[in-house]
Design brief:
Helices cover 28% and strands 27% of the residues. It is of the alpha+beta class. The chain has a seven-stranded mixed β-sheet with strand order 3-4-5-9-8-7-6, with helices on both faces. The chain has a five-stranded antiparallel β-sheet with strand order 13-12-11-10-14. Helix 2 crosses helix 3, helix 5 packs across helix 7 and helix 5 packs parallel to helix 8. The longest helix has 20 residues.
């Protein structure tokens, strides 16, 4: 049996109670519908209550008031795919959990979420400040690609995130190379990747994604979904939307892949989602201690200055100088736009 099709009693009970929209359902009815004993129903209710769900118990049965629902990311919130989800109340980094699970044979498509990260990771050893209310997760992939082609999955994830944020916030978000998402010229999300290979083939790749959803932002250079929409935004809604968009982007561009030279249509789509083509920029090696949420830290080793021309099919940044066009891989370099 495909283990991704197994559905826990917690998931089934929540589905039944939510269908009733707050109306009570007796334990005997729930037991019959779920194919378990009334005692098992009671134990499931107790387990959900301990997890933080406000399930009311009365003479008429059990009920779940929609107005009391909280924004949970537990595995059983994801139905048939719950065995692909791993949730942590507090962890160092979801990227670390993805790496450990990959080494242990975790399935492609596994998702690792956390309420808080004490060591959230950005690029080049920088930290991603993980405040309560944000969405922090990593997704594990086992693609049939060479290590040289890993940037294609990174581009897919970036495109999926910017599309999702635009849809949820009702305002266009934009990509900035190499891995940021901005809205109203303020950072709202970041994506980082880690890849492991054997020979020239990828064994696994993980994408770490952080989105400011309902969390307070550290400065005027950052934004959140709540601030943009003026309402509370479900992290579960954002997560599901991003995962769906990742699948959509994969399907849209899979047939156009020309892996030896990159993916031209994928790069073209990425370029259509950035607002910085034509802007003056500097390529630099950033200070290792710089926070990934705040680009105001010291920048070291300026490698080039010129005009940003987007990315090429291999995902490389193109900078046009007075003399030539220069190409930069993701690697350890970053890009600073000099006019906003």
């Amino acid at each position: 049996m495909n283990k991704t099709k197994l559905i826990s009693s917690k998931a089934r009970l929540l589905t039944l109670l939510r269908e009733k929209q707050g109306a009570p359902t007796s334990g005997s009815v729930l037991a019959k519908d779920m194919g378990i004993s009334r005692v098992a129903v009671w134990k499931t209710v107790q387990a959900l209550a301990e997890a933080g769900y406000s399930i009311d118990t009365g003479e008429a049965g059990y009920s779940l008031d929609p107005k009391k629902e909280k924004d949970f990311l537990y595995p059983w919130e994801f139905g048939e795919k719950e065995n692909l989800f791993f949730h942590y109340k507090n962890t160092g980094s979801t990227m670390d959990r993805a790496r450990e699970s990959a080494a242990g044979g975790a399935e492609s498509g596994s998702v690792f979420t956390a309420e808080k990260q004490s060591e959230g990771r950005g690029r080049n050893g920088r930290t991603w400040v993980s405040r309560q209310g944000g969405l922090f997760f990593s997704i594990l992939e086992r693609p049939r690609l060479t290590i040289a082609e890993y940037t294609q999955l990174s581009l897919i994830m970036q495109i999926a995130v910017v599309r999702s944020i635009s849809s949820i916030c009702g305002k266009k978000a934009f990509l900035r190379w190499p891995n940021d998402v901005y809205i109203d010229r303020r950072k709202i999300a970041g994506i980082t990747t880690e890849v492991c290979g054997e020979g020239d083939l990828i064994t696994w790749l993980s994408g770490g994604i952080g989105v400011n959803v309902n969390n307070p932002v550290p400065s005027g250079r950052a934004a959140s979904c709540t601030e943009i929409t003026k309402r509370h935004v479900s992290r579960k809604e954002v997560l599901i939307k991003i995962l769906e968009e990742i699948d959509n982007v994969k399907k849209s561009f899979a047939s156009t892949a020309a892996y030896s030279q990159g993916n031209r249509p994928l790069a073209s789509e990425w370029n259509s989602l950035t607002d910085c083509i034509g802007a003056r920029a500097a390529v630099f090696e950033p200070a290792a201690a710089q926070s990934d949420e705040d680009s105001s830290g010291k920048r070291e080793k300026i490698l080039a200055r010129g005009v940003f021309q987007g990315i090429d099919p291999a995902g490389r940044c193109i900078i046009k100088t007075d003399d030539s066009a220069l190409y930069f891989n993701h690697g350890s370099v970053s890009l600073a736009f000099l006019n906003g």
